[in-house]
Amino acid sequence: MDVAVRPQAATVMREPSPAGRFGEYGGRYVPESLVPACREVDEAFRAAWSDPRFRSQLTGLLRAYAGRPTALTPAWRLSAELGVTVLLKREDLVHTGSHKINNVLGQALLARRMGKKHLLAETGAGQHGVAAATAAALLGLGCTVFMGERDIERQALNVHRMRMLGATVVPVTTGSRTLKDACSEALRHWVTTVDDAYYCVGSVIGPHPYPWMVREFQRVIGDEARAQCAEHLPAGTPDYVVACVGGGSNAAGTFAGFVDTPARLIGVEAAGGAPLSDGVPGVLHGFRSQLLQDDDGQVREAHSLSAGLDYPGVGPEHAYLRDLGRARYVTADDDEAVAALHRLARTEGILCALESAHAVAWVLRAAGTPELPAGSTVLVTLSGRGDKDMPTLMGETC
Ligand SMILES: *Cc1c(COP(=O)(O)O)cnc(C)c1O
Question: CATH code at 185?
Fold first, then answer.
């Protein structure tokens, strides 16, 4: 792998092609009426991202509001048990409890800079919806969140949170009434409200420029961790960098900080929703990537105990990194994730999100094998805290 990695290191995880391509993936598959809107977002993002004032506004909010930088915590007891050095990047510690706030603060600031009055968002379990509603409240923007009817029933607490934060939650009654349908509905609604509204996408998915832009807003995870690893590790960088992959934003943000180092990058999908292991190329929600599909080319539902990993597609850049061999993607199942969550809780006193527990599960499984040899150093991103999963873990739902 390393032989192939070095020549590419300078070019991977930079800007996609002008058409928004990462290799054969990505692009912009939207109705004609949304092409100008996507272009407007693209131009606005480019201008903002190279404007030091925008950068310092965002950095200021991430510090004073979200609570960055987040800690890098050595997992002492777990490391001793496993025979590998485990460092945890603590996105569970930021405001609202997951990395999603990094992205929504960036996009909400951008929306305001573009003169938009309103955020549109899709949500599955409600984590991105809560983050979007939070950023909207902070910046004085309206917020409408599209959510499948089934998810509304399953995630009553987050629906309540969004409403308390001033957002309107719109039930989506089409299809399977879950995240996939909420994304479709949000895109449809954007067509009719595009003058006033900004579509705030929740992961490294959607039409160009979203996968690239969201990765850039999340790279603060990887950039911070890189600097922190330089202090903690004699070698300066870890041997392995591990993160869970739903749409892929916390993993993309983490990987971006290490893609030019020799670190092996490992993305962990939920076994029941693993387009990088079980998918085929296809188009959904405005972009081309690996997708779960049945024999007739219909999109297959993903199934995972962790709602944040329950998406049939994956960010196009991950499909590209996989094809290049620069990152490797593996799976962990529900039982392994629950076991990992319990083990981390007992050994380190950290109750992480079920999504994040998939990343921990791979470390538990691989430690001491040729996949993750004894004596290695491994950085694991904990994408969020586990409070939202307590009803599931207590057996009250699913
Ligand atoms: C939403 C979510 C995820 C999955 O999203 P990515 O875009 O793959 O990062 C993972 N962990 C938590 C805590 C989440 O809320």
Answer: 3.40.50.1100
